[in-house]
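Q: What residues go here?
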């Protein structure tokens, strides 16, 4: 039997992705707690809750996407606000974790900002975090509080399974994405290819050198965790076309789409770009070939499991089964 370890569930949405917060609220049939968020002329952020959350199980929904630094501060201040309002437990639901790519000291005299942000979230008063598709698995270990990481994998895989695309190949845009792309290819029951690339500097450009695997005469699906400036995507699409693919599509969880991503996506001539709504997509970025899938149901189900004291893994398994996905060997 499920046991609720804390008080009544309370959902609070920040300004980072209010549409997703509303969708999660509707899925759980739980209204969002009213809040007042003001940006003062001196750039200070003020937050006030419109009702009590004393002893309640509070979930704060706030991705740290653009504007990244402002959204991080809003999250921290929101956590502090709820803590000082005597909440029973505080869970930070962060659909997109900004600074996640600054996860190691890979050259002299550089920070590990992903660890810094994790420390700040715990210090602010969060008891646990819920994250989606981190850039690197070791980020879970940066937190000193409980961490649940879930994936949009079943949502994205279900979309492609329902398309029943013939003669397809899943493509990892680099060696680092090979494992997740392999799992995606296994579920779709298609072969895997890998783009070999080398990053030339600290600038957000890279160069694709080689395609490992057979792609000629096939429909390529590039699979990754996020798309930022789309430089890698554009290069990968170019490399695949040189090797005779019939079409190129892309599939990612997080649509960061920093400039000049939209121009590059146009130049890449993608058949389709499938993303989720972990990050809100502004109207000017909604190209005709971009398809947005919602993670609200998955996140809502996991929030419900956490609130009831149930296994998050069981909730994910049920969601994958509902999507009709076969088991994946993740060794």
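A:
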């Amino acid at each position: 039997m499920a046991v609720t370890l804390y008080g009544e569930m309370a959902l609070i949405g920040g300004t980072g992705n209010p549409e997703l917060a509303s969708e999660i609220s509707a899925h759980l049939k739980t209204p969002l707690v009213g809040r007042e968020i003001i940006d003062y002329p001196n750039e200070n952020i003020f937050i006030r809750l419109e009702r009590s959350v004393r002893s309640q199980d509070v979930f704060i929904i706030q991705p740290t996407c653009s504007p990244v630094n402002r959204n991080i501060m809003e999250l921290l201040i929101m956590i502090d606000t709820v803590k000082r309002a005597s909440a029973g437990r505080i869970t930070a639901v962060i659909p997109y974790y900004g600074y996640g790519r600054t996860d190691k000291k890979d050259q002299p005299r550089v920070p590990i900002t992903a660890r810094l942000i994790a420390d700040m979230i715990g210090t602010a008063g969060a008891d646990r975090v819920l994250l989606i598709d981190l850039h690197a698995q070791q980020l879970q270990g940066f937190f000193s509080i409980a961490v649940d990481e879930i994936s949009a994998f079943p949502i994205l895989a279900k979309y492609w399974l329902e398309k029943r695309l013939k003669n397809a190949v899943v493509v990892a845009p680099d060696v680092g994405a090979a494992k997740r792309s392999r799992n995606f290819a296994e579920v779709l029951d298609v072969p895997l290819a890998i783009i070999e690339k080398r990053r030339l500097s600290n600038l957000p450009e890279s160069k694709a050198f080689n395609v490992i695997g057979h792609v000629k005469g096939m429909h390529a699906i590039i699979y990754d965790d996020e798309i930022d400036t789309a430089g890698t995507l554009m290069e990968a699409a170019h490399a695949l076309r040189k090797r005779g693919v019939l079409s190129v599509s892309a599939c990612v969880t997080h649509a960061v789409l920093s400039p000049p991503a939209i121009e590059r996506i146009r130049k890449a001539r993608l058949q389709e770009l499938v993303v989720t709504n972990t990050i809100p997509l502004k109207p000017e970025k909604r190209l005709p070939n971009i398809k947005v899938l919602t993670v609200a149901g998955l996140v809502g189900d996991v929030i419900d499991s956490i609130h009831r004291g149930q296994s998050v893994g069981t909730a994910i398994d049920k969601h994958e089964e509902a999507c009709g996905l076969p088991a994946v060997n993740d060794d």
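A: Context that may help when evaluating the design: The first strand starts at residue 9 and ends at 13. The two ends are 32 Å apart (CA to CA).
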